Amino acid sequence: MKKADINFERIGKRIQRRREEMNYTQEKLAEALDASRNHISTIENGRCKLTIKTLILICRELKVTPDYFLLGTTHEYNPAKDIEDSLLLCTKEDLILIRDFVEMLIERHNRTDSEKKQKKRAMTYKSKKMTQQE
Question: Nearest to residue 69, comparing CAs of 19, 15, 115?
């Protein structure tokens, strides 16, 4: 079995992104973990190997599961569940924007479906008309 490579740089970027989503500075996270700001910086830049203990502490502080940092997802093969989990992290204002965006996507989808049905009816009509002329 092939040894799995751990991409500490990717993990660090995910930690940084989550820290910023939670409006934490490196200093605030460092203080909560009883670590230095420099240590948080080296983790986020992927320059140090993260221990399991530190990973768990960061997860608890940033309210996320380890799979998010390790794999980039919290629910393998379930994008809807990932979105649902992400929504829990959003502000009320963000949720309103997301709702509006989803409604816009649904309208676009419905409009596209309607246009496809109209084209199909038109093609069927033309086909019937051509058959009648023969």
Answer: 15
Place of tokens 């479906």: 113
Look-up: residue for tokens 């919290």? 74
Task: Sort 132 into a burial class: Cβ within 10 Å, 0-12 / 13-18 / 19+.
Answer: exposed
Between CA 6 and CA 67 the distance in angstroms is 13
Instruction: Identify the CA nearest to 55 among candidates 105, 6, 109, 126.
Output: 6
pLDDT digits (tens, 9 = 90+) for 61-79: 998 888 888 887 665 567 7
For the full predicted model, state whether its pTM sits above 0.70.
no
Torsion of CA 24, 28, 34, 38, to 10 degrees: 90
Q: Cβ(74)–Cβ(14) under 8 Å?
A: no
